[in-house]
């Protein structure tokens, strides 16, 4: 990259789309846009700026910058700022993010026009899942991730505004035909790992000594570095437990985080 990385950014790698689209008879790729190659994407968390590059592209492997418009982020008493994507997941050659509570956004790399690739936006009108039972006030913390070439959403439903009581945990797979989130209780041998800052990942459970079909959640709620527990939610059984790391850790000096193994 011929310029420094943004101070606050994240990186994703998207493999080329192979085989059928995630939902039979449908595709997120707009008309006239060919299946993309594999790309690496760096997105700025503070500004609506994207940088992406073709992997193993030979002489054509150069970084391309592109901006987008999600409107303004307005806070009372402060100057409005441009909204930036906070969390994104790469699935089958496309990049997905939560555009709003009622829309899922997608970015597809197009090689159709011009000498440089471009990210073409796609929007799906899909409302964020809600807590099924009645409650006076709830907060939903949503995580996007890829698992088994499918797009998943994990929602943590909190009662009140303190983020101290998790009322429910739900996993949803996106149906591209109906444009809706469908709740699932069986994610196979996968384990979903959730952390601070919207981090979410999937990995094989049995291979790494984890419980299959579970959501692992580690986050220091109070921000004081003393919460070393992590929560395990069994999606099929509907049970939950709190565990601690095996090591003798008296206190944390940073936010807890996951290290995810990557196969060659």
Provide a descriptive summary of the structure in words.
This protein folds into 2 domains: 9-124, no CATH class; 138-243. The model is unreliable at 19-26 and 30-35 (pLDDT under 50). The protein starts with 8 loop residues before the first strand and ends in a 21-residue tail after the last strand. The chain is mostly beta strands and 264 residues long. The protein has strands spanning 9-14, 39-44, 49-54, 64-67, 72-73, 81-82, 89-91, 94-100, 103-110, 118-124, 138-147, 150-159, 166-175, 180-184, 190-194, 200-204, 214-217, 230-234, 239-243. The chain is built from no helices and 19 strands.
Quick take:
This protein is an all-beta fold. The chain is built from no helices and 19 strands.
Specify the oligomeric state: single chain
Mean pLDDT: 82
Record the strand order, biggest sheet. Answer: 16-15-17-18-19
Helical run tally: 0
- What number of domains? 2
In total, the number of strands is 19
Helix proportion = under 10%
Order of helices and strands: EEEEEEEEEEEEEEEEEEE
- Structure class: mainly beta
Q: Measure the end-to-end span.
A: 24 Å
* Strand portion: 35-45%
Q: Outline the low-pLDDT stretches.
A: 19-26, 30-35
What composes the largest sheet? Answer: 5 strands, mixed
Q: Which outline best applies? A: globular
Compute the gyration radius: what is it? 19 Å
């Amino acid at each position: 990259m011929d310029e420094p990385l943004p101070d606050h950014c994240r990186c994703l790698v998207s493999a080329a789309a192979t085989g059928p689209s995630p939902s039979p008879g449908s595709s997120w790729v707009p008309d006239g846009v060919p299946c993309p190659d594999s790309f690496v994407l760096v997105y700025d968390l503070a500004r609506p700026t994207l940088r992406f590059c073709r992997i193993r592209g030979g002489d054509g492997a150069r970084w391309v910058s592109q901006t987008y418009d999600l409107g303004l982020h307005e806070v009372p008493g402060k100057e409005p700022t441009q909204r930036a994507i906070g969390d994104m997941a790469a699935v089958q050659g496309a990049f997905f993010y939560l555009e709003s509570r009622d829309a899922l956004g997608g970015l597809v790399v197009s090689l159709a026009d011009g000498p440089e690739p471009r990210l073409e936006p796609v929007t799906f009108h899909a409302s964020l899942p809600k807590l099924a039972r009645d409650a006076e006030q709830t907060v939903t913390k949503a995580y996007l991730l890829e698992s088994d070439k499918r797009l998943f959403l994990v929602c943590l439903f909190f009662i009140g505004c303190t983020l101290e009581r998790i009322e429910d945990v739900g996993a949803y797979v996106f149906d591209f035909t109906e444009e809706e989130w469908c709740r699932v209780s069986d994610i196979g041998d996968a384990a979903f790992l959730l952390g601070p800052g919207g981090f979410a990942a999937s990995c094989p459970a049995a291979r790494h000594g984890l419980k299959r079909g579970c959501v692992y959640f580690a986050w220091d709620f109070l921000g004081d570095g003393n919460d070393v527990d992590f929560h395990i939610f069994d999606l099929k059984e509907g049970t939950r437990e709190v565990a601690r790391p095996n090591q003798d850790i008296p206190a944390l000096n940073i936010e807890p985080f996951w290290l995810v193994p990557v196969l060659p």
